[in-house]
Amino acid sequence: MTPAASDALPSSLPRPAGELERLQSAWQTPAGWRFFSSVNNTSIGLLYIGTALLFFLLAGILGLLMRAQLAVPENTLLAAATYNQVFTMHGTVMMFLFAIPIVEAIAVYLLPNMLGARDLPFPRLSAYAFWAYAIGGLAFFCTLFAGLAPDGGWFMYPPLTGKEYSPGLNADFWLLGIGFIEISAIAGAIELIVGILLTRAPGMTLGRMPVYAWAMLVVGVMIVFAFPAIIAGTALLELERAYDWPFFIAERGGDPILWQHLFWFFGHPEVYIIFLPAAGMVSTMIPTLAGTPLVGRRQIVVALVAVGFFSFALWTHHMFTAGLGVLEMSLVSAASMAVAVPTAIQVFAWIATLWRGQVRIIGPTLFLLGFMFIFVFGGLTGVMVAVLPFNWQVHDTYFVVAHLHYVLIGGMVFPVFAALYYWIPLINGNRLSEPVARWVFALMFGGFNLAFFPMHITGLLGMPRRVYTYAADLGWNGLNLASTAGAFMFAAGVLLFVVDAVRTLRQAGKQVGNPWHAATLEWLPSEHYGNRSIAHVASMEPLWDQPQLAAEVEAGRHYLPGSVTGKRETIVTSPVAATPRCVLILPTDSWWPLIAAAGTAGFFLLLTIKMTLAAWACGVIAVTGIVAWLWQGDRPAPMAAAKVSDTLTLPIGAAGAASPSWWATIIMLVVDATIFASFVFAYIHISMRLTVCPPPNAALADPLWPGLSAALLLAGSALFAVARRSIDIGTGKPLLPWLVLAALACMGASFACDFNGHRLAGLAPTSDAWSATVAALLAYQGLHMAGMLLAALYLCARAWRGHVTRASRATLDNTALMWHYTTLQGMCASLAIHVVPKLMG
């Protein structure tokens, strides 16, 4: 019987003795130094939020140094080279180490309880994502103290960041450091997408899902499609710097504009990736603070999706002065204005909700009101810079700096501070001080506007960005001094908040309750295991419409009130209707995610300083850690089914498309395909710049070799399909490893054919950019061959140990997806390499 079939409580019988104790035992958080092995969303979420806020403070200190340098003309506080490092690190840390991580961190902490789940489906992946970010980010920040910090601006435009103009390691630290931090963000996005779609409480249909969860779902999808472009771009620039493959060197057929395309295809959606979670939090907080349901809820959800869609049409918004065609610029200009429409829908809905309700003027409310004022002003200047003639006048001036900060600080930092005031009682039951909140808001709001509003005027008067000093007779002196005073005033407000937060968190814990009388599930009574039982949701405002829900959940009257298997469990529900499908056994605490993350960070950072042997040792540690945690997690279920309520029994685990890990693999392959598409775009972009394609000193491989390669790839996929089928029919246990190894041999032979064909054609990636882009496509396929080697050996090891069966086949199914994708990618790469020159001709 499904939950919708009856209005009775899922579990009305008296709860058995010891049930709660068994649940507590399964979810017990390690104490002392073992706490760092925890993978529970509550533990990781708090560590994540704390680390992101630390980077916010560190980046803020760098911002104060910049403002101190610019307070008066011809200042010598910072030398030019030091200033370049400081402003590059300020922008990089704010964008990559604070803005994106803080929105993912809050989601990791809030979403499981808001969705009514015990935890997100891949807690060890969340732990790995956090530790890779924390270890790598802190090591990256410390480059400042060694004089190795990047100094080419947070967007690292070549040719300034090429080897000719930046011969040191500074740019390499940015490229490799940011590259793996983005991988960490993608891992978090995969966790959030699958968790939102498959682990919602029974009855929480997509129509009843909180707006914040909708915002994070849209953001997760945006990360999947936007972040691969910057990963591809950083890989190409690092290949140029390390191996002299001239992708961006104009004299050798490259194009610096290619970097701008790749960077801003990530960079402009990133603005909305930062804003949309904040908008989701605003849409969650405002109804509570106004005491009334959100006005235009469906329209807000549609607006969230529309903003996400439009954001991918705007990347050349940042390239209006780069010499693009008039038609292209006009279309992007129109799209830049059109994106204001769904954003305005949300703002009007928030204002209408406040108007309809009885607003309480408390700490969160003040920051939300400040957010709306600042963000709307930033949106207006955004429409101004979308107008081509105006953009040409203010491009690379302090007007753009002012606009950027009004949008980002107004659109994200103020909502985050509102969220901290609103949700901090979840930690230990204590609220931040209301009198102090007023001072914090006054200092931050007043200081922000004093700091950044004058920059609009400074920019209109001609002050360019990224200058470390200026002459005294340009008319900027008073405006810059005012901006510096405002920055320190804003910092005083942040410092006062930190003091109050430390005071509050040091207080003795008490019952959390529901201090704001909110409607969403995160305010249900919860412990480290989440809620005592998983609630059945019947409306969009469950705590308002089901007033007894908290007592029922705490008494174990809803789903899964204990641990059926003695392990950590949650319920998997259908993506749309949230109908219960199965019980998912979740991984327990482990050191392996931390070890794997440390190895990953070590690999990239040591590779940057040319300690190759040590870097590869760290790479082995990272792979070992990942394999170990996967090996522990992919075990057969101790029983076939679990009774989750008096009337509902569900299977334990699922295979194929019903499995969360299958969907996570699909999303990972979408990321992979987007990286590949970025490399193909680079190849096409460079080809279109050529008068003759291929260039006179390069040649295509003989069609025999790519044809043979494709045949071998298809043969390998066919063998793998036979191996998978043999498990389906129950005859493949002894044959599986040998079939997989045969498929691996075909894949290896395929790559050898590709490599030999390009070798015979005389491919020389150091000679020109076109040859380099061909080599990049070949190298990316080779990287997949190495990955499939590891996956095949892992699958064979599990098969030899008897862990691959019809009932326990996640490794087989997921490896099959990756295998067939690699076949498809290899064929597409060969097709692109051989078809594009014919089209160019």
Tell me about this structure.
The structure is a single chain. The chain is an all-alpha fold and 841 residues long. It has 2 domains: 35-506, Cytochrome C Oxidase, Chain A; 670-840, Cytochrome c oxidase, subunit III, four-helix bundle (Four Helix Bundle (Hemerythrin (Met), subunit A)), CATH 1.20.120.80. Helix content is 64%, strand content 2%. The chain has helices spanning 19-26, 41-70, 80-115, 123-141, 170-198, 211-243, 256-290, 297-311, 326-338, 340-356, 363-385, 388-394, 398-423, 425-428, 434-460, 477-505, 542-545, 549-554, 592-608, 612-633, 660-688, 704-728, 736-760, 769-800, 810-840, and strands at residues 568-573, 580-586, 641-643, 649-651. The protein has a two-stranded antiparallel sheet with strand order 1-2. It has a two-stranded antiparallel ribbon with strand order 3-4. α11 (363-385) runs parallel beside α15 (434-460) and α21 (660-688) packs antiparallel against α24 (769-800). The longest helix is centred in the N-terminal third of the chain and has 36 residues, at 80-115. Mean pLDDT is 92; it is low at 1-6.
